[in-house]
Amino acid sequence: MKHLSIFFLSIALFSVATAQTINQKLQKAYEQFLNDEQLKYATSSLYVIDATTGKPVFDKNSRVGLAPASTQKIITSVTAYEVLGRDFRYETQFGILNKDGKQTLYIKPSGDPTFGSWRWENTKEENTWKRIRAAFQTEKLNDNLAYIDANGWPSSIVPEGWIWQDIGNYYGAGSIFFNWRENQFDVMLKSGPNIGDPVSIVGTKPAMKEYRMISEVKSAAKGTGDNAYIYLPVNADHAIIRGTIPVNENNFVISGSMINPATQFLSGLSLNATTALMNYAENAANVQPRILHIERSPSLDSIIYWFNRRSINLYGEALIQRIAFEKNGKASTSDGLSVLRKLWKDQGIDEEELNMYDGSGLSPLNRVTTHSQVEILRYAKSKDWFPAFFDALPEFNKMKMKSGTIADVKGFCGYHRSSDGKEYIFSFLVNNYSGRASTLVNKMYKVLDVLK
Question: What is the pTM for the complete model shown?
Answer without folding.
Answer: 0.93
